Each structure stands twice: as C-alpha cells, then as structure tokens.
Amino acid sequence: MSNWQESAEAIGAVDRVLASVGMKHGRRATRKGTWKNGERVKSKKIKVELVAKAATGRAKKHAGADVRVVRVPGWEKFPWLAAGFSTRLGGISEAYGAGEQNLGWTEQDSEENVAENRRGFVEAVAGKKPGELVTVRQIHSGLIRVIEKDHGNLATENGRAVMRGDASMTDVPGLLLGVQTADCVPVLVVDTKKKVVAAFHAGWRGTLKRIVERGVGTMQLRYGSKPKDLIAAIGPAIGACCFAVGDEVRWEFESQFAYAPEQCHWRYAG
Fold this sequence. Notes:
The chain is an alpha+beta fold. It is built from 8 helices and 15 strands. A hairpin with a 4-residue loop joins strand 11 and strand 12. The longest helix is centred in the middle third of the chain and has 16 residues, at 111-126. The N and C termini lie close together (8 Å).
C-alpha cells in the first residue's frame, strides 16, 4: 500500500488551526486489557523494581534540578493563569536516559520517579501556588470531561487518572489540567474573561471527531465563553519530517475538511 507523508502550514484563522491540529498525528496502537479499576496492570516487572530501589536517593540528589518547561509567549500577562509544555529534561528518571522528566506511567520507570517528576513539573509551571494536576486516561476519542467544584476523586492515591477521555476543562481555581502526548498534538484553550481553561489531546482520530471544536462549543454552552475572549496554544508534536500516513488518513481529512487540500501538501513516499 502506498504511503503519503503529510505536512501542515500555519492557518491564519484560529478556528481552522484548532480544527486541523491533529493532521501531524501518527497512529499509535493502545494496549488492551492493561487497565483494571483505574490502575494499569503490569505484565512485566523487569527494571521497574531495580529503578524503584534507588528512587528515593535520586529524588534527593535531583531535588534542585531544573525542570524545563516550554512557556507560551504572552500568557504571562495573566497572573491567574499557569501554563506550559514539558520537555524530557530536568527530571530524575533514568529508564530512558539519565535526568529525564518522564511523566508517563510506564513499565520501564518506577511510580516513585513518575510521581516526583510530576510534582516537579507542576511546581515549575505553577510555582509555589497549591495546585492539583488532573489528567485523563486517553483513548483517542472525542470525549471531553467538564470538572466542577464537587468533582470528587480525580485520581488514584498514587496520582493515576481515573476518568477516560481526551480533554478536560474547568473554571475551578487550583486545578492544573494536563494531557500527555508523544506524537499527538497538545492544545490549550483559555477563556481570559471567564477564567476557564481546557486541555486537549488532539490526535488525528480526535481531530476527525472535532474534539477541539466541540470543546470550544462546550465552553460556550457551559460557561458562556465568547470566541473573542479565547486564546489558544498548540504544543510540540511530530513533524512532517518524521511520519508517514496511509491513503485512508488522507482520504478521511480531505472528505471532512474542505480546506485540507489547501493546508496540507501530500507527498508520495512509497
């Protein structure tokens, strides 16, 4: 089967940017049967136990390490808003390389390391302000979670997400919403007037399901947000240099987005 490599140009209108952010996303298979009662069931314990033994010592050693955060230019003018994108630098994990900021619950890294990395990242983003990191168990869907004041438990005791979905939004102070991405596109949307924040995991499947567009619509219905008051940031994601997609992905986008041929240049790579 022939492959097509895709590349996306910047889109002037914010709504079109948000509608097409998933065009750089790659297909990533998900494991089946690895979750039970909100916990990932580990099939292998190799390396995990070895890493866990030294977790406490490394946490103390790297307590003063610089956790690197990619800031959004211009957003610093909102004193109530804390936002940023993580990098691989500044953590205490060694499963993927010394001093890496691994924020994912993987079999290769210990829970202690991940929890410490997440704590450091939250502090780097929000400073000393008290805050709770809220994530979702991502399933490449269009499901959006609205978090109210009486939200109940948002994570297990060790910090794992309990809600399934690929986006969340809230107007509750003290909550730091987050999504995890590898090649997918992280999108942050903020209502600067209503002080509503939203975080989206915009993979190509979610984009076809209009996850960001639906999210903006949800903000309008739930909080009375107005498009003129919204600002958005698209975080680091995979580029056209490094990923090829099949014809079925190209056809999906061209059949659903009238402007896809204009904004994306499909190059034969097979």
